[in-house]
From TrEMBL:
Gene3D superfamilies: AhpD-like
Highest taxon of source: Bacteria
Domain Carboxymuconolactone decarboxylase-like: from-to ranges: 41-101
InterPro entries: AhpD-like, CMD-like
Annotated source species: Alteromonas ponticola
UniProt name for this protein: Carboxymuconolactone decarboxylase family protein
Amino acid sequence: MTTFTIHTKDSAPEDSKPLLKKSIDEFGMIPNLHGIMAESPATLEAYQTLHRLAQETAFTKAELTVVWLGVSAKHGCSYCVPAHTAIAKNMGVDEDIITALREEKPLPDEKLEVLKKTTLSILMNRSKISDSERDAFYQAGYTHRHLLEIVTVMCQKIMSNYINNLAKTPLDDPFKDFMWSKDD
């Protein structure tokens, strides 16, 4: 079996070096995911751009966490669930929300539960959600913008979840306290 290289700013392809510097500037380190993505400068740049755009959506921190962790848990990403747990805690997201997402249980907030159900339905049904699901989403207070932005955030998570699952990305030290695995 061939393993993926976790690049450093010294070993990375030339076009990835400034992108890894951005990772250091933002996170104080090069997350292993970014080190793996550095093999392809286009992939790392796309991921960093989507990460920035996800944070510019109309979602609150809790809502963004619902999409990030909901998709990551559904994909069984043992890298992203711990990473987004740490990020959610850092952002001050309620512990009950984080726990429910990690355990794939109903959320303690009805509006967030509708967001999670809609997100996972879009994911699992390849965007073909029912009229009743769409109506429930809008009745919960969400808009067309939110529906579109679920797709934006989901694209970011699909990139990282798939790459982490393919590469078997080892967990970074700051995320090890939040280790997680899918109970299938």
